[in-house]
Every structure is written in C-alpha cells, then in structure tokens.
From TrEMBL, chains A, E:
Listed SUPFAM superfamilies: DsrEFH-like (SSF75169)
Pfam families membership: DsrH
Name the UniProt record assigns to this protein: Sulfurtransferase complex subunit TusB
PANTHER family attached to this UniProt entry: PROTEIN TUSB
BP GO terms, sorted: tRNA wobble position uridine thiolation
Family matches, as InterPro entries: DsrEFH-like (IPR027396), Sulphur_relay_TusB/DsrH (IPR007215)
GO cellular component term of the entry, any: sulfurtransferase complex
Source organism per UniProt: Bowmanella pacifica
UniProtKB/TrEMBL annotation, chains B, F:
GO biological process terms, semicolon-separated: tRNA wobble position uridine thiolation
SUPFAM superfamilies, sorted: DsrEFH-like
Cross-referenced PANTHER family: PROTEIN YCHN (PTHR34874), SULFURTRANSFERASE TUSD (PTHR34874:SF3)
Subcellular compartments: Cytoplasm
Sequence similarity: Belongs to the DsrE/TusD family.
Main location (coarse class): cytoplasm
Gene Ontology CC annotation, any one: sulfurtransferase complex
This protein's UniProt keywords: Cytoplasm, Transferase
Protein origin, superkingdom: Bacteria
An MF annotation (GO) of this entry: sulfurtransferase activity
Protein name, UniProt field: Sulfurtransferase TusD
Keyword Cytoplasm: yes
TrEMBL record, chains C, D:
Family: Belongs to the DsrF/TusC family.
Protein name: Protein TusC
Record organism: Bowmanella pacifica
Pfam families: DsrE
Gene: tusC
Lineage: Bacteria, Pseudomonadati, Pseudomonadota, Gammaproteobacteria, Alteromonadales
Domain of life: Bacteria
Length: 95, 127, 120, 120, 95, 127
C-alpha cells in the first residue's frame, strides 16, 4: 500500500499519467500543489482513470488557493488528515 | 505517536515545496508526532540561505524555519549540494577565501550521511 | 524606451511555481517604461486568471488581484488561448479581467507580430 | 546505520537537469553507510543508463561512468521499468550496466517493499 | 515566421505537444537540451507531427551528450547555425 | 552583423540553461555578432552568486561569466528577484544589516527596467 503524492499539473507534466499506470487498488493518491488542477480535466484521457481510484484525495488548501472545486467522489482533506494518511499507508512517493 | 523526517528538494519561492513542507510539519507537530528533522538537498538547499529577503507581503521562510528549530526540529543542509549553489558555512567559506557566509544558525551544514541517520523514523516525506 | 514590441507569455499555473508572479512583475515594469507589451496566457497559464483565488491558504501571495491594474499601465493587449481554456473546462466568465480569447491561428498571428517573446 | 530500507527513484533524464547526478551521489553515500538501498529507473530516468553519453559537449559532467561503481558499494538492487524502456525504443542492450528489467506490477511490488522512497 | 526552441523531454513535459498544436508551415522547431530525447519517440503520438515539420532542427551537442542519434529528416546543427537561425526567423520563443 | 540580448531564467547546475546560454553567446561572438548583455531573472539570478563552488571536475560558471564580461558582455541581475533568493549586492546587504554580500563584480545588480533597455537589439533569446 503506497501513498502517491502528486504535485504537478497533469496538463503540463506527465507525472499523473505515469503514476496512474502503476497504482494498484490498495494504493492512495493525493492531489496537492498544482496537481489539484487535475480536477479541471473532465475532458482529458486521464480523468476517468484518476477518479476511479477509490482512495483519491485532494488537499483543501491547494484547491482553495487556486479558486477551483472538487467533485463529490474526491476526498477533500487538510494537512492533519494528510499526516495521518502517510501513516496509514506503508510508504510514500512524491511524484 | 509517530516519527517523521522531511526531505526538501525544491527551491524556496520558485516552487511551493517549502510552503507545503512547513504546513505538513506544523500539522504533524500539532497532532503530537515527532519530526526528527528536515534535510535540504538539491535546489532545496536554497532554503538554508540566511539572506532570503522577500518583500514584506510575502512569506519569510527564514523566520518560519527558525520557528521550527525552536520547536526541536533539526535543520540540516547538504554542504556539497549547497556549495554548488553558492551556499557556504563559515568554515567552508573561510577555506574558499570568500568574504562572508550565508549558511548560519538555525541551519546546520551536514553531509548526506546525516540524511542516512534521519531514516530511522516511521516515515520520510519529500517535498 | 525602445520601439521594440515585447510579448510576455504565461504558460505556468499559479502558486505551484513562481513564474506567473514574476511574469506579472516584468509586465508592470514594461508598462511603466512605456514599452509596447502584450501579455499572453497559454496552456496552464490560463489558470493565472481564475477568479476567487485564495493562495494565503498555502502561504503564497495573491498577486491575481494585480491583474486588474494592468489597464492603468496602458497594457491593453491581453490574449488568452481559446483551446487552452476549453481543455480545462473554462470560459471567459471564469476569468478575473476582460481578455481577447483567440483561436490557435489568430493567437500565433498575434505572437508573430512582436519583436521579442519571453515565456514564463 | 538504521535498518530501514530506502528506494531511490530516478525519473528525470540526464544533463538537462541535475536530478540524476545528485540521486547517484545520494545512492553512493547510502551504500557507503551500509544502508540497504535500491536504485530504480522509471520514465525518463531510464535515459540515465544509456551507453555512449558525452556530456562534456554541453559542459556537464559525465557521471554515467560512475554507475559501473555501484557494485563496489554493494548496491545490487538496480531496477529498470520495462514499460519506460519500451516507450523510448530501448532494450537492456542499450544500457551501460546490468539491471533487473521489471514489468509495472513487479516494479510496484519491489517499490512497496522499501520503508522509505525518495524520487529525483 | 517564429523559431521555437524546445528544451524539455516530451516524455515528461507537454511543451512539445503544445508547441506542435500552434506551429505553421513557415515556423521552425529546434530540439535542444532534454528535448532531443524526442528523437527516441518513434512510437509516440507526437512523433509524426513533429517529423513532418520541414524546418525541424536538433542541436548536435545535446544529441552527443545523451548518447542518442538523429534520423535523416532532422537537420542536425551546431551552435553557430543556431545563432544564424535565430536571425533567419522573425522572432524566437523558448518553450 | 546583428545584436543580441540574452535572458537567463533557469538556475545554474539545476538545469542546463546556463550552459546553453554560454555556448550560444560564445558562438554569436565568434561569428562577429554583438551581445549587448545578459539579464538574469527568475531562478536564473542564482548565476550571479560570487560563491558558486562546484567540484573541480565540473564547470565553474563564475569563471565562465567573468570571461564573457571581459569580452564586453554586460551582466545584469534583477535585484528584486535576487533578494527573494538570498542574493544581495553590497548596498542591499548593508541596508538589511547582513554580514556580507554575494553579488559582486562582474555582476551588476539592476532592476527590470535595465532589461527594457536591453530590448533594443535584433534578437532576445531566453535560456
């Protein structure tokens, strides 16, 4: 069980696609920093693979900073929940 | 309660990494966890500059890192990575014959071996 | 100042990186020096203009408020890439200032008319 | 040293950025401290291992020669992503050292076995 | 006539795709720094659009640095030719 | 013969931008063109550090930039962008009460207005 921290916008950077090609059902994905712009990608090829990850999280502060919003199926979390998540999973990768 | 070490590899201001690291550490401490230390590497070594001088309406990272040190979080910077980027401790600066040094307390100039010491924690998180 | 026209392109989203903030700084200086300047928003750069940004939450400056000041610097060439907006599910109504929204062909034409182009 | 196992991931191509060179520095120190370390090459990171690099031409250091020294540091977990190689038209024969080439599932399993993971 | 300088690997970064969507027949493209890895993209969606640009250049030093090679249809140039190219086109964009 | 100005926005060592800029400028000068100057902005301001200290087998950018200045290429760094990143001229450092300064000749601390002056050339090329 790996927790994947995504930090780059998938419109500019391939990290989200590359990460999605490697996650399993037990893994978790956190969208933070510019990666929260992924939530504006409804028309992009990576959007459905991303939202079908059951443990998909997005950082509240980064969403608010950017003037966007999250759809219902995304778990919006703050930093305390992020800290707790890193302990719930076995290890953490920052992409 | 758990133990953490934090690896910062992103440059201050240029990217949001330092900001995210600060908020993560503050949250971890507030939850009662222990943060053993922060290790600055790659472009992250720029966080160790004693002379970061942002405009008054922007985050002053020097103040923020100092506050963490006061809470017991060790702040280590890789001196080889730092020297490549123009950041020197007093000793390294004297050896080079430079006129000053910009790695100053609360930052400690260390080697990568220090980071190996910091792996003895429950989680390492990289920003 | 020189008579050379300069285009400043925003290609990066705000807050994760410093590009947008320093592109805007350069634009304001260009304007105050009377330079003929065009400001372009392409790709993730269109996110610079979103309304309702609150970057204080992530310890970054809310410089998006400054876009409204561009007109006082006589910077009236503000161009946004239509295709970039569309790919992100955005329309002009989501943006904090009035801009020209151009299709790729027209946008390239507009860029080609500048002597110098810098990108952030 | 600690008994924690650390995975170091290369995700960036060499020479355009410093990631690869400093990832290798960290790997060598980890090895010399007796740390149990795995070195992974994913995505553009696989370009790190290409034979015949001559970065002197662009004023960068040819640190790829150092990969051959990894075995003397007892670093024998060297894993390359099969899919990343394939996408770039590469095979193991193009690489400067012997490595384990793993399919995505096996690669993720290998990564999951480490206590800590850092990426460059 | 714009000269486009590409610097990032298209396997990691979307700049090449974004640039290709905007060039006209009169424009030129120079692959430099990590963008020369585009020459290894025979199987990628952007490869044919890229090689169909008639003024496609790649910087010799960056190719040699990385241990790769260029197919025939790509004009391999050195820095002196790059300097001259920037003057042949009306202006230059660094992506 | 043509005139150039060069904008460097990428950090030394972290990216290849400085290396490419150097090679471009050397080629332009060798062809007999005139390079009015280099303007360092964004993370490129780190090029202006007088204290870049790479290992002996790596490019020494301080030496390389100094050689260009000796050939008549002006080297300007944006002082606001520099201050945010811990780079200060003697005057700015004294005003802040710092113990030294790391922007030294051949680098000149300037404002963005200086870059506007540098636009009066045939081509601006960004690295």
């Amino acid at each position: 069980m790996i927790l994947h921290l995504l930090r780059a916008s998938p419109f500019s950077d391939q990290s989200l696609c590359q990460c999605l090609g490697r996650v399993t059902e037990q893994d978790g994905i956190v969208l933070m920093q510019d990666a929260v712009y992924a939530l504006r990608g409804q028309e992009q090829a990576w959007y459905n693979p991303m939202t079908s990850v059951s443990s998909l999280y997005a950082l509240k502060e980064d969403i608010e900073a950017r003037g966007i919003s999250a759809p219902e199926q995304v778990h919006v979390i703050g930093y305390p929940e992020l800290v707790t998540l890193t302990l719930k999973f076995d290890n953490v990768i920052s992409w | 309660m758990a133990t953490f070490s934090i690896l910062v590899t992103s440059a201050p201001f240029d990217t949001q990494g330092s900001n995210s690291a600060l908020k993560f550490i503050q949250a971890a401490l507030a939850l009662g966890h222990s943060v053993k230390g922060v290790f600055f590497y790659q472009a992250g070594v720029n966080n160790a500059s004693a002379w970061l001088t942002p405009p008054a309406d922007e985050l002053n990272l020097s103040v923020a890192w100092r506050a963490l040190k006061a809470q017991g979080v060790e702040l280590h910077v890789c001196s080889t990575a730092a020297a490549r980027r123009g950041l020197l401790s007093e000793q390294d600066s004297q050896e080079q014959g430079y006129s000053g040094h910009n790695i100053q307390p609360p930052m400690t100039a260390s080697g990568l071996g220090q980071f190996m010491e910091m792996l003895d924690v429950d989680r390492v998180v990289q920003f | 100042m020189t008579s050379k026209r300069i285009a400043i392109i925003n290609r990066t989203a705000p807050h994760g990186h410093s590009q947008g903030q320093e592109a805007l700084d350069m634009t304001l200086v260009a304007g105050s020096f009377g330079q003929d300047v065009g400001l372009f928003f392409l790709d993730d750069g269109v996110f610079q203009l979103l309304t309702g940004q609150k970057p204080d939450a992530v310890l970054r400056k809310n410089y998006s408020k400054t876009f409204a000041a561009l007109e006082f610097y006589d910077i009236d060439t503000l161009v946004v890439c239509q295709q970039s907006l569309q790919a992100r599910g955005l329309t002009q109504a989501d943006l904090c200032i009035p801009v020209q929204v151009l299709a790729p062909d027209a946008l390239r034409e507009a860029l080609a008319s500048f002597n110098h182009i810098v990108s952030f």
